[in-house]
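Record 1 of the preview.
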Amino acid sequence: MPLRTPLHERHVRAGARMVEFAGWEMPVQYEGILEEHEAVRTRAGLFDVSHMGEVVFRGPRALESLQRLFTNDLSRCADGQAQYGCLCRDTGGIVDDVVVYRRSAEDLLVCVNAGNRHKDFDWLRDHAAGADVRNESDDWAQLALQGPLAQQLLQRLTNVNLSALRPFRFAPGEVAGATCLVARTGYTGEDGFELFCSPADGPRLWDALLEAGAREKLQPCGLGARDTLRLEVAYRLYGQDMTDDTSPLEAGLGWVVKLDKGDFVGRDALVRQKEQGLARKLVGFVLTEPGIARHGHPVLQDGRKVGEVTSGTRSPSLKLPIGLAYVPPALSAEGSTFQVEIRSRPAAAKVVKTPFYTRK
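->
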């Protein structure tokens, strides 16, 4: 039986089409993926992301402990700032990609992917040294308000000065009477905010946002639009674009791997990989022949499989078939060409620079 978020009744009442995702019953769409995608790119969209997990590190050694488990450098992260990075195994394989919210050096919240909430907690707890590590996933609901009109809409409901809240910063405050952690982060490529609140306040906050956003034509959005939005800006999806068998360097996330910060789990393997050279790289591509690439489709060169598509769709914003794929380094340069096998038919593709879409 799939789990349900505190907002499940709201989705059903609104006529959302529900699907199982990462063990959760979630809305895949309301009015339609294209309409919801367009709303986020041009106005504002509201997502229920309460299925995401939250693991908290507390105590005098909380920062030191998490720093050893995280590829990015939390010593460069100020209180009230969020930082994206990876958790890696000793082999360099990715346990998960996460966002760490640093409330203080003794209180850090790690937001983990829904399908990994138990795996991540077990791994973090088992590898933590001297910190109190707790799985608080069930103590939070999480809403994501995304789009160019998100700030003006949210400002009417909150006492947080959103103009002073820069990207990847967060602050405690009230939104529509609910106590929240208001973070200027997101997974769509647009400006926007993620609102962490208690599960009891989640439905009331959802209702208040939709009512207040009527003038902006705020649109409730499902997982379908979330996927097309994130792929247009080449944000990786754990379980598709990266797994325990891929490293951050292979996944094009070298910018969140700070090898000079000191020791961390997986560092030695990543150093070796960098010195020896990568066997494969994740690239963005567009199809130059009709078709839509999907996860698992083979990448071909001269009729031989040399890689695999990890994510693909037809971009609603660009009206082009786009995707991400692992290919040999020799095929990773911008302008390189290969074929993607779609239903036993090869379709020509070209490597392009990512992100595919950049907001104005």
